[in-house]
Q: What sequence folds into this?
């Protein structure tokens, strides 16, 4: 394995109950880069993130982080011992609690002293959120809430950030803010980002690499800019992934 690989799935089988969704999936994501997981609905993209974060049992195969076998580790171990943070789909804040209290909860495994020391450093990334520290989290805009979720995850100074469809429900401009933040984390802090995103075209513009899945297997792994520039793949691929924009398009 080349030593710039942060995440490696080797022949992984995982699923829900009797139903296996990842079917001997092998993939690799590079350290400090943003890798997009693409593919049609139900291909298993979110399942990859959940399996990596220890939320689903690995039935076969191995998962490695920086070459270390982490197969079977649970979410708490991944978070606290291996530096993996997961921002799931949808809204995951405590809406009635303040912005600051939500951040405090993000640092619960660190202890209050360390959490309070780190909160200002995370807030530097989000000037607008910082002005609303004592407002209820639910009063932030959708984009600000997503930024706060990412900020909460960053308190643990993760080396790997798993993020599932951060753009859902956000306007295109706000999506750009969230994407810019991820780019900054990768470029300035060397965070490895593995992201599921339906907003394929704008995500490809800011990502480094793209992996496409179909029926729980990798069917493509290419640099994001190459994929964006390839008219043939664009027609097939973006058509399939943009279900909202072109409901009758073929899948990948
Ligand atoms: N909790 C669950 N229990 C049973 N089956 C599930 C569960 N979550 C997902 N699945 C099934 O697993 C398959 C893969 O789901 P997954 O969410 O990984 O797909 P995806 O590629 O992320 O799709 P989408 O783009 O629609 O979010 C789907 O057929 C889905 O119905």
A:
């Amino acid at each position: 394995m080349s030593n710039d690989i942060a995440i490696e799935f080797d022949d992984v089988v995982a699923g829900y109950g009797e139903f296996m969704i990842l079917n001997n999936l092998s993939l690799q994501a590079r350290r400090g880069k943003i890798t997009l997981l693409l593919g049609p609905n139900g291909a298993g993209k979110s399942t990859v993130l959940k399996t990596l974060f220890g939320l689903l049992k690995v039935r076969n195969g191995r998962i490695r982080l920086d070459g270390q076998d982490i197969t079977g580790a649970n979410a708490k171990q991944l978070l606290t011992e291996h530096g993996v943070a997961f921002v799931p789909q949808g809204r995951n804040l405590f809406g009635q609690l303040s912005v600051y209290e939500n951040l405090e909860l993000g640092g619960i495994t660190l202890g209050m002293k360390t959490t309070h020391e780190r909160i200002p450093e995370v807030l530097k990334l989000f000037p607008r959120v910082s002005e609303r520290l004592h407002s209820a989290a639910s009063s932030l805009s959708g984009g600000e809430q997503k930024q706060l979720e990412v900020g909460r995850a960053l308190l643990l100074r993760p080396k790997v950030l798993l993020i599932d469809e951060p753009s859902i429900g956000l306007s295109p401009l706000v999506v750009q803010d969230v994407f810019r933040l991820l780019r900054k984390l990768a470029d300035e802090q060397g965070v490895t980002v593995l992201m599921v995103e339906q907003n394929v075209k704008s995500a490809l513009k800011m990502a480094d690499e793209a992996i496409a899945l179909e029926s729980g297997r990798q069917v493509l792994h290419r640099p994001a800019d190459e994929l964006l520039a390839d008219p043939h793949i664009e027609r097939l691929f973006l058509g399939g992934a943009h279900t909202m924009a072109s409901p009758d398009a073929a899948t990948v």
